[in-house]
Structure formats: structure tokens, C-alpha cells
Amino acid sequence: MIESTARARLVPYHKRKLVLIYAVMRHFAADLRAAGWTVDYRAEADDYPAELAAHVERFRPRAVRFMEQSEFGRSDRYRAAVEALGVPVEITPHTGFLSTAAEFDRLAGTADKRVTMETFYRVMRRKTGILMDGAEPAGGAWNYDAENRERPRAGLRFADPPRFAPDAITQSAIDFVTRTFPDHPGTIGEFSLAVTRRDALVLLEHFVRERLDTFGPYQDAMVRGNREMSHSLLSAALNTGLLGPLEIVERAELAYRSGEARLASVEGFVRQIIGWREFVWRVYWKRMPEYRERNALGATVPLPAFYWSGDTDMACLAETLGAVRETAYAHHIQRLMILGNFALIAGLEPQAVNDWFWAMFIDGYDWVMVPNVIGMTLHADGGYVGTKPYAASAAYINRMSDYCRGCRYDRNDAAGADACPFNALYWDFVARNEARFAPNVRMRMIVRNWQGRPAPVKAAIRARAGEIVRRLRANERL
Length: 478
Ligand code: FAD
Ligand code: SF4
Fold this sequence. Notes:
Layout: E1 2-4, H1 5-8, H2 15-34, E2 42-45, H3 48-59, E3 64-67, H4 74-83, E4 89-92, H5 101-108, H6 117-128, E5 132-133, E6 136-137, H7 168-180, H8 197-210, H9 212-215, H10 235-239, H11 245-257, H12 263-287, H13 306-309, H14 315-327, H15 332-346, H16 350-360, H17 366-377, H18 394-400, H19 421-432, H20 434-437, H21 444-451, H22 455-473
Parallel strand pairs: 1-2, 3-4
Antiparallel strand pairs: 5-6
The structure holds flavin-adenine dinucleotide (FAD) and iron/sulfur cluster.
């Protein structure tokens, strides 16, 4: 096992994320040794291929076997580094996913038509038998989203997730990151994440018992000071391999079958894991490497400095960016409808946004960022992952959160000096892309709404949007 500091500097990763990865690795090595394995652990090393070559030269193995890497092109590079030393390489399939490329290709067909998440999800439901009653979906429907999406109520609270105090191994990872990556963004704070399989199983069990039932109704809600809401926080454990996707959805299904959690919540959660997660993994492998460079809407505004600092008067962004800086986590709807939505409607440059998410999130890896950011969030893939862009004005943010109350900007205004920036940017986004979105059945009504406005109103909104973009380009405070 190799700790590559060169790899950790590829983008300026959040300190907390680096601690997580090194703590998981160090604990895993200790568990392997306790189980009788010999581990060649290269701590605080620099370059991965050089260390791999040094390992091969020292141990002269008959072959090197490793699991397919989750990052495009990396398996090929490692294979070449080992084969150059005359040692054969065997690559085994990735164990963190349930789907195969063939299952995705079957849906795409020879003409390579667009595959929707919903279609792929049903294939995964049938394959795994999760939430299936014979050939039929449990409860008679595949998707219970209509029963979810409740607005947040005042005083909404959920059980706190379990916290895991650092032991000596985790502390060694904290010390290493503090010493080696002082300039990286974010704070380590009171580190309390799951770093062993044992911890991860406790996290899963706690989520299923305490929060799964409310996951569905409140999955789109955002409340100030309530960072996790009813989300599972399982992505970090899942993406580092501490948990597997099947055991998670099997435990969730058991909760439904035993009456612990309602079907709409369990189905909504299962859809995230064997629907969305498997889908984006397949889209990544199908579309890379060109997918990462897509910019279908021609967005060119540089990423503003406040994404790193959190220094903005926009309350929704300040709240979410504060959470990211302190915990390297924000839940899905904050990522999509606050951070992502702003980047989309302001026309921020997709690859810079992608790399920011990749660096700052505890669960961020290339395979999951590229389809989520370039595809789902920024529509830079021209509509492959989602037919309709996830663009919204303050009306949506106010409906689904309590952020607008007390914000210095006026959520009901689009053109004035104190108007909420989301409003002008939203309508400017529609105007900029009028020709593209007019034929889209899911956008047509919005385009018509814009077209029907009086010319002076449109001009005032676009002037306000122009001023905001000018300030973004000049890195002035908003
Ligand atoms: P929950 O809300 O409890 O969901 C359960 C699980 O479903 C997650 O743990 C995750 O494994 C899976 N999941 C749900 N949606 C997705 C999705 N769209 N893609 C992949 N898995 C999904 N997820 C990551 O794992 N890593 C990322 O770097 C990441 N970046 C994102 C960036 C943007 C802009 C957006 C819009 C989404 C991103 N997601 C990412 C997807 C999703 O937001 C996170 O998986 C989720 O917020 C993690 O928190 P949780 O474990 O509490 O999730
Ligand atoms: Fe965000 Fe606008 Fe609401 Fe302020 S008014 S919190 S900037 S949506």
C-alpha cells in the first residue's frame, strides 16, 4: 500500500478528506496485519509508480494483481509501470459496484442511444431483486418520488449521526496531513468520521434505525445549522470501500419489510445507491475521456474566490460553503441547487467547478464528479445525464429552505441593486439559452414566460445579471 503525496497534490484536496483517506488506509493495513497478512506499507511516500516499481524490485513477485482503478487511465499507467519491469499484471474487476458495462451497453444499443437513469435503475432492481415482489416492484410502483420532497418545517430535527473519536492511528493521519499539507483548504476540526469497517457498519445501522424513515420526505429540504438533515452520510464509507452497495440496500430493504421505514423513503434511498450511483459510474466509463472537457453551454466565467473562502453575503451560499469548509460535506440538494445551480446560471467554467468539487468533498473522486458536475449539474454534456437543467431562482430556494429569511438580498426582486443574484442570473440563463431550450418540452413553459415579459423588464434584469457577472469576473464581493 502506497501513500502518494504527489497524488494528494493533484488538486488542493480538503485537509479532512486527506485525513480520511490516510486514516482508512492505515487502519486497513493494521487490520490486514492482524489477520496474518504481510503488508508492504509505504507511508508518506512521494510518487506512486516509483514506489510500485521499488516494491516490485524488492519482492520480485511472479505477478502483480490489482483491482481496476476507479479513475480513467490510471490502471493503464500502473500496468505499464509494472510491465516495464518484466512482471505480468492481472487486473480484477472493481468490487465497489454492482453493474457491468455490458448491462449499460445493452440499453444503449448499437446506435449508442441515450440511456436514462430510470431505465438503468430498473435493470439494477431486477438484477439484485431489491424491493421486488417477484417480477413486480414492491408496492406496485418503481418510483415514489411524488410522496417525497416535503418543505422544511420550523424546528425540524433529526437524530445526530454517530461520531467516532480518533484513535492513535487516526491521530497519526491527522498529524501527517497537518504537517505535510498546511496550505490545503478546509479545516480538520474535531475529526469524527468512520475510518474502519466496524465504524462504517455502526453508521449504516444508525442511519437505518434513526433516519431512513424520514430520508424520503426531507431529502430535498435545507435548514440552517442542520448540516446532515436525514441523509445517510454513507458516501465516504462506500467510496473508500468500507461498505459495499449491496449490503447497504439489503439492510434498507429489511427495514421496509420489517416495518421500520416507509416504502417511499426506502425506495428513494435504494434509487440513490443502485440507481444514481451505478448510473454515473457507467456514464463515466462510457463517455470518458472527452466527457470531462465538455462545455455545451459555452460557460467561461472563472470560479470566484468565494467558493474557496465562503466570503459572500448570499446567505444560502455562505451557509453551504461554511459547511463544506468545516466538514468537506454538503448534502445532495445543497450541492445541486445551491452550489451547482449558482455555477450553472452564472456560467462558471465547468472544468474549474468540477475540480473545485473534486478537491473539496469528502466523497469526491473523478468518476463521480465528472457525471455529477459536468453532466447533471452544469448541463455541459448537452443533456445526456439530465434532459432539463437544474436551474432555479430564489423562489425554489425559499420554498425548500429557510436561508432567505435574514439574507441581505431581496428574494422577491430581480433587477434592483439589492435583488437576489439568483433571480437575475436565472432569467439571464434562460435568455442566453432561449433557442436551445425552446424546443425542450420540460423548458418550453419557462422560455415562454421569459418571452412574454415587457422589453424594459427584460432589459433591467439582463443589466443586473451583466453587473453580477462583471463583479464575478473581477472577483468583487457579492
Ligand atoms: P444520501 O443522500 O444519503 O444518499 C445515499 C447514497 O446514494 C450516497 O451515499 C451516494 O453513495 C449515493 N448517491 C446519491 N446520489 C448520487 C449521485 N448523483 N451520484 C453518485 N452517488 C449518489 N457523490 C459522491 O459520492 N461523491 C461526490 O463527489 C459527489 N459529488 C457530487 C457533486 C454534485 C454537484 C452533485 C449534485 C452530487 C454529487 N454527489 C456525489 C452525489 C450526492 O450528492 C452524494 O453522494 C451525497 O450527497 C452524499 O451524501 P450522503 O451519503 O449523505 O447521501
Ligand atoms: Fe440565497 Fe437569494 Fe435567498 Fe439570499 S435571497 S438566501 S441569495 S436565494
